Amino acid sequence: MQGVLRDGTQVAIKSLSVESKQGTHEFMTEIDMISNIQHPNLVKLIGFCIEGNHRILVYEFLENNSLASSLLGSKSTCVRLDWPKRAAICCGTASGLSFLHEDAQPNIVHRDIKASNILLDENFNPKIGDFGLAKLFPDNVTHVSTRVAGTMGYLAPEYALLRQLTKKADVYSFGILMLEIISGKSSSKAAFGDNILVLVEWVYSSILVSE
Hints:
By secondary structure, the protein is of the alpha+beta class. It has 2 domains: 2-60, Phosphorylase Kinase, domain 1; 67-186, Transferase(Phosphotransferase) domain 1 (Transferase(Phosphotransferase), domain 1), CATH 1.10.510.10. It contains 6 helices and 10 strands. The strands form 4 sheets. It has a 4-stranded antiparallel beta sheet with strand order 1-2-4-3, with helices on one face. It is globular and about 60 Å long. The relative contact order is 0.13. The model has no long low-confidence stretch (mean pLDDT 85).
């Protein structure tokens, strides 16, 4: 939802219902993670509210919605993204991810890098959002054993199989995101021509054919 503060500032409002898949723990994680960090390529949290069953997050308003909507959405929401814009979105997202992995203290693994969690401002600058699944990574930790969380199509195989989370899981997800940006195809739709393939398989088969 979109709203306007008393000073005229436009904001985006994320309201979680009782039936929402994001529970109280994920909600509090998102607040803790993003309220303590600032970067040009991370969504800015302005405020939040917890009252009864109501869970509300108030973010800066980003005019061009999500990358998923702009790049992979319906004809009514798709935006013509030229190559300079696509390259800038890749670079900006990489900058935000690098900040989380190297400069945030402690380091943070996002765990759900995907097109719908990359939001675009009026100039199509990308900002990483939705930190509900994020994990803190102290400097002396190389991996964390945890339940698998994230989105199918973006999950690193070693993380999905071994349940050992490292920063490389985000890097893999970012790689899938780049393939989506370059190809204009969704990683979650496994239909390419006459074959039923996921995006990675389709790219790999295309490379083999070109060779």
